[in-house]
Every structure is written in C-alpha cells, then in structure tokens.
Amino acid sequence: MNEPGIEVSGGAGGIAVALDALDVAAPALRAVAADLADSAADLALVLADPALVAAALVAPGRTARTGADLLAVAGPSGLLGTSLHLRVLAGTVAAAAELYRAGESGARQAVEGVDRTAGLVLGIAVPTVVLPVSAATVLGAAALRTRPSPVWLGAYVGSVIGVVRELPSRAGPRVDRVLGEHPWVLEHSVAGAEGLVVGLGLGFPPLGLYLADRADRAGLRYPPRTQAEAVAVVTAAGGGHVLDESGFEVEVRAHPVSTAGWRPPRGVSDLVAADGPVSGGDHVRVTGIPLTDGRYAWVVDVPGTQTFSPRPGTNPWDQTSNQLLEAHERTLTMTAVTAALSDARARTGRGAKGVADPVLLGGHSQGGITAAALAADPVFRAQHPGLSHVVTTGAPIGGVPVPEGVSVLSLEHVQDLVPALDGARNPDRAGWVTVRRDLRGDLRGASDAAPTATGAHSGRLYESTGALVDERTVTDPSLLRWREGAGDFLDAGRVDAQHGDPQPAAGARPVVVDYEVRRVRRDG
User: Fold this and answer.
1) Which of 72-76, 413-417, 445-449 has the highest mean pLDDT?
2) Which runs of E-coded beta strand occur in 350-415?
3) N or C: which end of the chain has fewer CB within 10 A?
4) For residue 223, which of 244, 251, 202 has the smallest C-alpha distance?
C-alpha cells in the first residue's frame, strides 16, 4: 500500500539541475587541475635554481632533504598526481552527464516508437476487428434478449437499442476503475495518437482519404508525426461543423467583486481551492494584490471545462476549446483572458505599456491548459511582460512550450486521466516543478476511496494536494525555491513576527473582478 504523500520532480532539486551542476563542475575541475599542474611545474623549477645548487656544496644533506620534500609536494604523490586525478574526475563527470542525457533521450525515443507502433496497430484493428466484434457482440446479446413476438424484427431492433443504451452505464464505471488502477494504459494510448490516426485511415481507407483531404485543406501535414498534429487533423475533420470556432468571436463582461473581508492567498492550497480567495468559479477571476513598492501582483484564475459538447456554443469552456488547445492553436478563451487581465490592470492605472507587474496564471483542467498556452503565447507575453508563474492542477501541459523564464508548478494525481491526455510527461528543468500524488494510499478507507480515473480529477482532491504541497515546502528544495520565487503573490498574506503584515503602498487597495465570457457568431 502506498503511504499518503506527494512525489516532487523538477525544480531546484530535479535531475536537470543536478546535470547542469555537473556541466559546471567538469570545467571547474579542469581549471583547478591546470592550476595544480602549473604549481607543480613551478616547484620543479626550484630544484634547478642556482641558489639551491650552490647550497648543496655547503650543506648537501639538508639540501637533499629539501629537494626530496619539493619532489614529494610537486611529484606524482603531490600536486602533479592530484592534477591528474582531477583531470580524470572532470572527464568522468562530463561523460556521466552526457551518458545520462543520451540514455534518457534513447529511452524516450524507444518509448515513443513503441507508443506510435501500438497506436498504429490499434488504429488498424478498430475498423477491421474491434468494431466488427463489438457489433457482433451487441447483435448476439440482443438476439438472446429478444422475446418471441409476432413482429420479430421490431422486437429485435428494440433489443439492440436497449443493449446499446445500457453499454455506457455498464461498461463506463468498469473502464473508469480500470484506468484509475492502471493509468499508464491511457498515457501510452494517447502518446501514440499520431499512429492511431494513421492506423484508422489504413484500416478504413475511405476515412484515410477523408482525413488526408481535410488536412490538406487546413494546411496540415498528413500523415501526422506528433500528437499535436494528430489532434489538429482530427479537429480539421470536423469540417467547420464541430470543434471549430473560426466563425465566432468572444464577449467579455466585467463584474467587480467586493473586497470587504477579502484576504490574499497564503499558499498553494489557496491558489487552487474552488472557494479560495482568487477563485472565480465559472468565470475568469483577476485579482490584483497591492505590493509595498506601488506595484500590483496579479493572479488570474482560469475556469475548467463546463460542457463537453463538440459543437461550439455560447459557452467557450467546452470540448472545442479543449481540442484546439491540445492542437496548440489559439482559442477565444485565450483572447478573453488576455482582455480580462488588461481591463483589471487598467482599473488600477497599471495597464500602461511597459508596466511589468508580476502575473501568475492558474487553472484546473482546461483552465490549466489555457494558462500554460498563454504563457507560451508571445502575444500575451508582449501585453503582460511581468508574467512569471503558472500553477495548474489536473492539466495536460507537458507538451506546451512554456518558456524557461516562466516558473511552472504542476499538480497531478497518478490516477487522474486528464494530465495524461497529451501523452507527454512534464519536462524536468529548474523552472518547472511537478507534484504527483498517488491517491491509492491516501483514500484507503474513505467513502470515495476507489481511485477511479474521473474521480481522481476532483478539484477538492487537488485542493488537499495543494495543502500537502504547503506542508512539504519547508523541507523540499524544489518547492522551497518555487515558494521563494512566488513571494509577490503569497507573502502579502504572511505574518512577519517582527514587523507584522507587509503593508501595501499608501492608497492602494486590492482589486477583484470576475469576467463572464461568451462565444458569439461574428454575423451576430
């Protein structure tokens, strides 16, 4: 049984930082070795000094002992030997770092190759084996359930419809539990999405021709070579009827929130809580926290998916936005968040171009994907140059190219299916900390203990994971460094035992605004 707790990777204590340290250590060791070799050579020259040679005529015994001492210090057992050892160590350190990187890259490429091949095989099997077998099973089950009737065909068709309707309620919970117990299944299945799309086209050639045509019309590559390209091809296959918001624009309406009794966030649990001080619920909430130097720290909470309809409607937090985000395309929700932050900053007079107030973007699920996508978007960064942090929960952002200068904190549950939907693990680097929590040990004995794939996506569970992060911060180097970097957003809520709460600049007040976002057709 797993013990309750979290696993932290990346950040200041991550492998990438350790390898960077080795990269610095190797040349430093070589430099010290060179200095020692130079010192050994200098001592060796002393032995040939005329004064020492002349001294040997007067005090040969003492001069011989002095020479022996100099050789001991400068020779193979002294500086020269140490220099050689350091040179070997420097080479070993550099080689170890390169071998680790090469091994990691090779292993990743091997896994990606296996995933791609598995996706290809599955794609071919779906139209040629899986669907026929499934259809035969449904038809056979319907035949067994059909009661004798004068109108046999009608009774049989009714039984078929009944079996199909029962499938989600019967199979759904089982699939949910299996994915929760074996989360790697979905992760590797999604990672081979490009193979799956190609396999479907090979297994059912008319579909392949259609996908190739739609991809060509959209200017996409077919067959796709990456997971993002595969998602883009699937999106293009909608033909403008589903998963396409190109005929729409976005409306953003501001609803200022009273700050009476409001308090600033004090930790990760406050940043991710559904009822926390910076949460806007179904709306985008922009919170401006006044700092002591006259600046504001801005926290933007982006909501998650609210409808799974593939047809774009007035609510933009839907499956269309999910699909476009996974294809690394810009969405209307990204446009809305950009506008919301600009409006909130303008309300405090901090919206002028070039004002680089610190900005933290956060969100759960789709909200987290949107936050990461905005961090990777040069348009957003140009408008809000102070962007410094992204905090996500249950979001598949491993493949989003967030720049090195933005600090990322990702909270994921091992059993949660959503973080695996991009088929990519989060990078291990100094500015990206990933916290993974295995719920099997934590929830044992609880009423909702079953670690199902959908249950593990609960926002409430992520709030408790945020509390675990806050508890671990003082002992984990990666979390501690992240916490220190996020001080502008969290320190306003900390109590300094000596000086009390940090006081904002004179006249500065917190600003909290909720933004309602709607998708509307361009033609009205």
Assistant:
1) 413-417
2) 359-364, 387-393, 407-413
3) C
4) 202
